[in-house]
Amino acid sequence: MHQYFIFNGIFLFFEHVIHVLGTWKLYKKLGIKSWKILIPVYNIFIILKIYKRSIWCIFLLLFPLTSIILIFILWMDLIFTFFKKTKKNIILFFLSAGLYIFYINFFKKIQLLKIENITKKKKTDHIGILLAIILSFVTHTYIVQPFVIPTSSMERTLLVGDFILVSKIHYGLRMPMSPISIPFIHNNIIGNIKSYISIFQWPYFRFPSIQSIQRNDIVVFNFPKDSNHKIIDRKDHYIKRCVGLPGDLISIKKGILFVNHKKEKFFLEKQQAYFIKTENIPLNIEYLKNKMDIEDVEYIGEKNDEYFYQIMLNEQKAVQIKHLFDNIVFIKKYILPIHFKENMIFHNYTDWNRDFFGPLHIPKKGELIQLNSKNIHIYNEIFTYEKVNKFDFFSKKYYEVKNNYYFMMGDNRHNSSDSRYWGFVPEDHIVGKPIFIWMSIDWDRDNPLNIFNWKFRWDRIMKTVNGKYSYLSLLFLLSFVYFISFLFKSEKS
Predict the structure, then answer these.
(1) C-alpha pair distances (Å), 221 with each of 201, 229, 306, 360
(2) Tell me, what's the pLDDT at 431?
(3) CA of 218: how far to CAs of 131, 147, 170, 460, in Å?
(4) Considering the domain boundaries, does residue 436 fall inside one?
């Protein structure tokens, strides 16, 4: 914890120095004494009072990202106090990332416009829009963040086209590790152009959690194996179900998950691959997609008027299909044989596959792991996460784990890249807890930008992720009240 605030303090000190160097002459022209300009925070307080901005804005200095935004706003205030608000000045300011103020401060002849312009300008400023952007940014970074589900790995719990809100405080707010970045853009702007400056990296720090991660919670986390981004909070986002907690023993037998030797609880949304064979007539795929909302249908081939398919289904849908189509010869789960080694399972170090996996112990903070030739390759990856010298490690028989780790799986068990393939999720990679589906659109997965094919899933909009509560009716009620109040104000005016 102390390391994070030390880094933060150092950053704010350099920010203060840059601010003073870039605004010294401007402060002096406003009649502010030199000693007041040099005092950190107080010099910002003075400018806020001069421009009649809310004193509460001072709290934006507590975090690097919001402090940069506040400094930029104040720099613009200062510039347009001495120079006209022309398109040229605005463009130069933004193209130089604000550094245009140094050119003005050191090389331009500064002449104060009428002091009345400072207060008059305040009336026409779009401060409301600016504050709304800042508030949205703070909310997005520190409280709740929107995501969209792009793949089918969590079907049928979360569908492609679900727009969800993820709480960052349930599992403890993780403070940003990349303090300088473009707001609202996660890691890349376009292609491989990064949205953040990677040379600045804060240490990991997380505030106390409201609740700990529970078994079978759905969790958003940064993908540990994202090699394109080294800073943890800039790695790609994944969303899976946490099926294994620190200290648990995980195993899979015939496609069935066991945790600590106990069979997982049945839940309707879980999907697996099914083989389907029909005779004489092919399977009606259009009916499956349009009427039964089944998307993952793969046609394998045809032989002697027999047609073969692989479809991702939950048990309920499998029973429905079996009774709907008379031409189905069989429908059965596609379980890999126990002796079949699946490539890429747990870094390709084992003889496991997706349906026969483990047993595997999940590392827990503080426990001692006994190392031997059989398990050293399994736990090899945690040395990277914990920054352990591997040469020192190999000389020990026991290793004390420094962090908690989690085992994640998608609900679409046979169509999910998860911990079975790439391993554990360290606790510092945890982002938050999905809590709400605020919008859900059924789009063409081959061409999602074709808005003419979009269909709203009204039964999922304004619904909690667990499906227990729906607030769609409340949304309509609030919209109606707002509309009536708007008409009333219009008539009154």
Answers:
(1) 19, 14, 44, 21
(2) 96
(3) 33, 14, 12, 17
(4) no
State which of 333, 354, 372 marks the end of a domain.
Answer: 333
SS3 40: coil
Closest CA to 420 of 349, 492, 473, 491: 349
Per residue in 284-312, pLDDT (tens digit) is 888 998 888 888 999 999 999 999 999 99
User: Strand, helix or coil at 103?
Assistant: helix
DSSP 141: H
Cα(49)–Cα(193) distance, integer angstroms: 39
What angle is formed at CA 340 by the lines to CA 339 and CA 345, rounded to 5 degrees?
A: 115
Residues 295 and 313: their CA atoms lie apart, in Å, by 9
**Alpha carbon distance 402, 386 (integer Å):** 7
CA distance 19 to 22: 5
What CATH number has the domain bearing residue 288?
3.30.70.260
Rounded CA-CA distance 252/262 in Å is 11
Give CA separation, 394 vs 398, 405, 446, in Å: 9, 21, 49
With 0-12 CB in 10 A as exposed, 13-18 as middle and 19+ as buried, what is 258? middle
pLDDT value of position 493: 43
CB 445 within 8 Å of CB 454: no
Q: Strand 249-253 relative to strand 262-263: parallel, antiparallel, unpaired?
A: unpaired
* Most confidently modeled range among 96-100, 244-248, 397-401, 450-454: 244-248
- Region of poorest pLDDT, from 183-192, 240-249, 399-408: 183-192
Cis peptide before 359 (omega within 30 of 0): yes
Give the CA distances from residue 465 to residues 175, 264, 435, 439, in Å, rounded to whole numbers and listed in that order.
Answer: 25, 20, 5, 11
Domain annotation covers residue 263: no
Phi/psi of residue 54, nearest 5 degrees = -60, 130
In a domain, 198, yes or no: no
Average pLDDT, integer, range 188-213: 89
pLDDT tens-digit readout, 121-177: 444 445 555 666 777 788 888 898 889 898 999 998 999 989 999 999 999 999 999
Final residue of a structural domain among 304, 333, 362: 333
Of 424, 395, 394, nearest in space to 408 by CA: 424
Number of domains in the chain: 2
**Axis-axis angle for helices 87-95, 64-82 (nearest 10):** 150
Tell me the residue range of the domain where 308 lies: 272-333
Mean pLDDT in the chain? 85
Residue 58: which of 44, 68, 43, 71 has the closest Cα?
44
In a domain, 30, yes or no: yes
Structure token pair of residue 45: 């307080």
The answer, yes or no, to whether residue 255 has pLDDT greater than 50, is yes
201, 371 in Cβ contact below 8 A? no
The helix (H) or strand (E) run that includes residue 476 is helix 472-492
- Cβ atoms of 116 and 144 within 8 Å: the answer is no
